[in-house]
Prior knowledge:
2 copies of one chain form a homodimer. Chain A is mainly α.
Amino acid sequence: MRDRSFPIGAAARATGVKVPTIRYYEGIGLMPTVSRNAGNRRLYDAADLRRLVFIRHARELGFDVEAIRTLLSLQDDPEKTCADAHAIARSRLAEVEVRIARLTALRAELENMAAQCARGRIDECRVIETLADGGHDHGRLADA
Amino acid sequence: MRDRSFPIGAAARATGVKVPTIRYYEGIGLMPTVSRNAGNRRLYDAADLRRLVFIRHARELGFDVEAIRTLLSLQDDPEKTCADAHAIARSRLAEVEVRIARLTALRAELENMAAQCARGRIDECRVIETLADGGHDHGRLADA
DNA sequence: CTTGCTCCTCCAGTCACTAGAGGATGTAGC
DNA sequence: GCTACATCCTCTAGTGACTGGAGGAGCAAG
């Protein structure tokens, strides 16, 4: 009963990935072209749902689609050599470390901003002042 | 001398915001429509540059344009309390903290995976699991 | 006056979705 | 079987926050 196939709406509810997004992922090849029923509707199984949850969490962590593709390839290709898997894991690891470092710096600045704000008038507000002072860093507009 | 007028390229160099991005900010109303010289070129003054730096810094901290619009309008009204600015900063801080926590968990898994791979155990990769049930709630995935 | 940079506007493309049109299918009640 | 309504299908276009290019005008130096 719950074991076999979910239509796309159920898959969306189960994974937190919206219906059009699931179709989009199929279109760009992040999700496989799943089987269809007699009426041409997509049917997902438990493995597909796990893949969707994986993708959602990876996106929430700020990985782009290409990075997720390589992460998924670790699973998709069990024949893959150790060296390949190791290389992918290590390069993703490096990316994650950079991201953590950047976010940690960002957190420090936000904390400093918020903590020193005395909740007084705007013209004494530390949040506004910090922003107006500009960054030391003329680098990338980084989010993550 | 320096606080008279900068053409857009000088403004870009001075603030670290790219030329097309400055024009884009004007288009969406984050920057005012500045005055032009005889040859129709934009001329920026010191206050404009400060505003650009403010925007750049806020973008680097991950605030979206709407938040920046609010912060800028707060800045323009120094009599108000800074409760709103404080709230915007704190909510961004909360997002950043969630992200750091998840990335830290992912880093541990990738490290673990890289180590296992190095010992030849590809088929027990836990990266999928980490991301698949790692973060937070959303729909429970019927296990399998 | 020519070279070469900077600037102008407008339009297209990027990434990862998101929303809508217009139509087919599945399901529950009568 | 028939109706009502939810869910699904494909396709196209829009979003945010830019980025890049075309095609042309302005300006400073040699």
